């Protein structure tokens, strides 16, 4: 029976790493949402003046015509590519995308996907993951370290502390949803 225990540990390890990465992303966005609550705005609500000026229709809400353009991106999408990932996938000069405006919707989506994959730093033209993912993002590494510290403090005192945490985290969403806005 010892092999079954080790097999369960080996199966739980990648799941816990994957889940903790999701928790790190949640911590990252929770921090900026909390910061935006006190400062009056989220950083992805507007286009940053330091980004290239060739981002067409960065603020989609200002012009309804932007929704009809295949190369239009929203400011949250631009924020994600420029600030979070520090790369320029899906953000191109307007003249590169002008030849795709007269295609059908399906052709436009396929052309945009092809342009996305061929211009991205993380994927090649076939969509396969490129092993050169770029440098480690310090802000995301910090969020991941905070997530692992939270895991450490959660299991430090044993199963008793996890029981109290589960009592709060399992019932809190139901309580928040049950109250009318």
Automatic annotation (TrEMBL):
InterPro entries: Na/ntran_symport (IPR000175), SNS_sf (IPR037272). The chain crosses the membrane at residues 6-31, 139-156. This is Sodium-and chloride-dependent GABA transporter 2. GO terms for biological process: amino acid import across plasma membrane. Pfam families: SNF (PF00209). SUPFAM superfamilies: SNF-like (SSF161070). The keyword Phosphoprotein does not apply. It is found in: Membrane. Signal peptide: none annotated. GO terms for cellular component: plasma membrane. It is a multi-pass membrane protein. Keywords: Disulfide bond, Membrane, Symport, Transmembrane, Transmembrane helix, Transport. Disulfide bonds join 47-58.
């Amino acid at each position: 029976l010892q092999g079954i225990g080790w097999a369960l540990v080996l199966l739980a390890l990648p799941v816990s790493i994957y889940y903790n990465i999701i928790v790190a992303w949640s911590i990252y966005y929770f921090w900026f949402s909390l910061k935006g609550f006190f400062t009056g705005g989220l950083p992805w609500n507007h286009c940053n003046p330091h980004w290239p000026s060739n981002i067409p229709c960065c603020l989609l809400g200002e012009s309804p015509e932007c929704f009809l353009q295949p190369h239009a991106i929203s400011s949250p999408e631009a924020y994600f590519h420029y600030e979070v990932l520090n790369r320029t996938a899906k953000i191109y000069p307007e003249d590169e995308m002008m030849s795709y405006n007269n295609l059908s919707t399906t052709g436009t989506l396929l052309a945009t996907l092809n342009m996305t994959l061929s211009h991205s730093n993380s994927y090649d033209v076939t969509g396969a993951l490129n092993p050169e993912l770029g440098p480690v993002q310090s802000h995301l590494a910090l969020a991941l370290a905070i997530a692992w510290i939270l895991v450490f403090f959660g299991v430090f005192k044993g199963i008793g502390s996890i029981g109290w945490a589960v009592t709060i985290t399992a019932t809190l969403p139901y309580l928040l949803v049950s109250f009318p806005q």
